[in-house]
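To the team - adenosine-5'-triphosphate complex, inputs and output below.
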Amino acid sequence: MRIFSGIQPTGRKHLGNYIGAITQYVAGQDRGDAIYCIVDLHAITVAFDPADLRERTYDTAAILLAAGIDPARAILFRQSDVLEHSELAWLLGSVTAYGDLTRMTQFKDKSAGQRELVSAGLFFYPVLMAADVLAYRTDEVPVGDDQRQHVELTREIARSFNSRFGDVFVVPEHRIPEVGARIMDLQSPDSKMSTTSASEEGTVYVLDEPAQIERKFKRAVTDSGVGVRRAPDKPGITNLIDIFAAVRGTTPEAIEAEFHSSRYGEFKQAVAAAVVEYLTPTQERFTELRADERALEDVLRTGAERARAIAGGTLAEVRAAMGVGAPPAARRGIGTRR
Ligand code: ATP
Ligand code: MG
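Output:
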């Protein structure tokens, strides 16, 4: 079974990314043939700084390795190092309905929050994501709940391509965790914890110091009622229960049973302590790994070579099926395709 997922290179990956996605990536290594990609081409769809982008890519690589991604078992690479992703995105654009893209909630959310340029790249983002996934004939895509709609569109694009040009793509399934698929912002528990559009105080970063983590949980917004239990009108406390359950590896029901008579203040302290304990080993390994950029670049380069070997094969079939470019036999020596 092939597993693929991508993560944006913002060094400030947060607890939502960690619980919703990164822990699933690590587990995926035992379940199949795992491929993980640091998606710098997605990160440039919103405001960014070029020098920063490269640094944040190393940060993200180091976080993934620190969390337990093992380059001997999984392929880890930088998206832009494998040119096939961008070419495939363009080709898939021709079988993607414009109307479908206009329905994507991520575009609506991110463009609404954009003070400067709303880029065409932000609109086309889901097509590039479909290319990422489909290039590897992926069976399963581990993601947080916010990416459900994009994976659904990826499936639609694969089906539409296959019915028009022949069976080239595997139609992938998403894999969304049962607990922690949607960690909410601690300050505004109606919106997801996010890398680009969250409040600083409401976002717990993987690399936050223990004191920062404790402070953020202490100030987390809750309702004025009592009772540590989940309810639609208690989004703040519900979120804290979900976080606690995810980091403890238990169910929200078990947390409710244990803390039902606790005061909110006590409960918040207990969640903070559990999160600190959960993140500490990763933070320690991160510091060591991040210090050696050469070693990180080696991992990414080796990963890109392995990824290109797979994606290149898919691309050749896609081009042939679509009648794009010189026929395979005449292609030898044309261009600089790697
Ligand atoms: P942005 O908000 O700018 O899109 P992000 O925080 O979503 O950034 P990504 O790199 O886009 O970060 O997402 C990486 C993975 O983390 C995706 O699989 C996504 O579904 C998951 N994820 C993101 N936010 C959360 C969250 N709040 N709870 C659970 N999973 C999340
Ligand atoms: Mg995202």
